[in-house]
Design goal:
3-stranded mixed β-sheet; ABC transporter involved in vitamin B12 uptake, BtuC; 2 domains; Immunoglobulin-like
Length: 425
């Protein structure tokens, strides 16, 4: 026990020193990529002013649709897209979002997104406006379902690990970042097609998940470390990995080489690139496959037995450590795949796993702690509510909407959607 306390104290002390050190980040800036149906739009003028209207700078998108405006310091800025510079037949998708208010933090290069659509845009009232509103709702539902499936890939690992070990792993989001960065390394640096780079990334994620339990979490369990101590260690591990990614990868977000600028296709009121439909099919197939494995295979049944009663499962002949190791392997693989899919939907960045971690925990808690199926259902609910909440709140605050759902469900049904009520006493 004394050694465990000393180790935790030394670890947290090292983290304090690490956080006190200067961050390895670039100067503050605002940037973005202007695209219409997956194709870059050049010649669009972007201007940036301070909150009180003082001009800061302006930029014009290049042939790849990108723009960048450095800002003198952290603070609140207004970013305006000059609609007169848009090409013929292209207009802002949401007329009220030609100017966005964006917060920039120290050492941060903030991405700013403007949604475009084809067509003249018409008026802002009457039947056309009502039709545009319902098209926007349909588009957000599609995007929310896609986001929910990505969240579910990460949340399933969190739920399975919690169900079998009781550990609340705050470092699980970094497994998504690891998966995206491994795929980026092979795709961009080594020229491997993204499909094969994704397969390599999933294999690396599975190996890393196995290694974590084999040489780290498993040893802490064997030493009798408490769940509280292990949870604190997972927070420290998450911080360490995040800053390591920042040091190795840099502060800018970057895109894969493949499937980067696909033209969108229209399916009813929904417009999306073909990669989105294929990605959703892969995500859904993997989630169904893992869920069926939990129901039909001996390992899956053993995992459910350990989740119900580890001591009884061990006394009945189940190798608890072996099953937990398999769970960590599967969780690492699905998280890596989720990272690749998230990087495909947006760019790859060192904070991408951390930014979606709240959604994963919300999905796990909503669905029911320890339930893989609950994690899937809860994640889809979180993804839908996160995207649909942008109808009434700024896009920057959309993940806070999942907290509202989380609080409401916990007040009404504390065990979650598919969780079981536990009897106390």
């Amino acid at each position: 026990m004394r050694r465990a306390v000393i180790a935790i104290t030394a670890f947290l002390g090292g983290l304090v020193l690490l956080l006190a050190a200067p961050a390895w980040a670039d100067n503050e800036a605002l940037k973005g990529t202007i695209q219409n149906q997956g194709k870059p739009v050049s010649g669009v003028k972007i201007s940036v002013t301070s909150e009180d209207g003082q001009p800061v700078g302006q930029a014009t998108t290049g042939s790849d649709g990108t723009w960048n405006v450095p800002v003198p310091k952290s603070g609140q800025y207004k970013v305006t897209l000059d609609q007169k510079t848009l090409p013929a037949g292209v207009t802002l998708k949401f007329k009220d979002r030609g100017t966005l208010s964006v917060q920039v933090y120290d050492g941060m290069q903030r991405n700013v997104l403007f949604a475009l659509s084809s067509g003249s845009g018409g008026g802002d009232s009457g039947p056309s406006a009502e039709s545009s509103y319902f098209e926007r709702v349909a588009q957000l539902i599609f995007e929310g379902f896609n986001l929910g499936l990505i969240i579910a890939l990460g949340a399933m690992g969190i739920s399975l690990v919690f169900g079998t070990t009781g550990l609340t792993n705050f470092a699980h989001g970094e497994l998504l970042t690891l998966g995206a960065m491994v795929a980026f390394l092979f795709n961009v640096s080594f020229g491997v097609p993204l499909i094969f780079a994704a397969v390599i990334s999933v294999a690396v994620g599975a190996l890393f998940g196995y290694a974590q339990d084999r040489w780290f979490w498993g040893r802490l369990r064997a030493r009798g470390s408490s769940l509280l101590a292990m949870m604190i260690i997972s927070i420290g591990l998450a911080l360490f990995m995040r800053y390591l990614f920042l040091f190795l990868f840099g502060g800018e977000s970057k895109a894969f080489l493949d499937y980067n600028a696909q033209p969108g296709i229209q399916v009813g009121p929904i417009t999306a690139a073909p990669k989105n439909f294929i990605a959703m099919a892969i995500e859904l197939a993997v989630l169904v496959l893992v869920s069926m494995a939990l129901l039909k295979t001996r390992t899956g049944k053993a995992a459910r037995a350990i989740s119900d009663n580890p001591a009884l499962a061990a006394s009945s002949g189940i190798n608890v450590d072996r099953v937990i190791r398999i769970i960590w392997t599967v969780g690492g693989a699905t998280a890596a795949l989720g990272g690749v899919m998230l990087g495909l939907a947006q760019n790859v960045g060192y904070q991408m796993g951390f930014q979606i971690l709240l959604g994963m925990f919300a999905g796990v808690t909503l669905g029911g702690l320890g339930s893989a199926f609950g994690a899937l259902v809860g994640s889809i609910v979180v993804g839908l509510f996160t995207q649909l909440s942008t109808l009434v709140i700024p896009t920057e605050l959309k993940f806070s909407g999942s907290l509202v759902v989380l609080i409401l469900v916990m007040l009404i049904r504390p065990q979650g959607i598919l969780g079981r009520r536990e009897r106390i006493g």
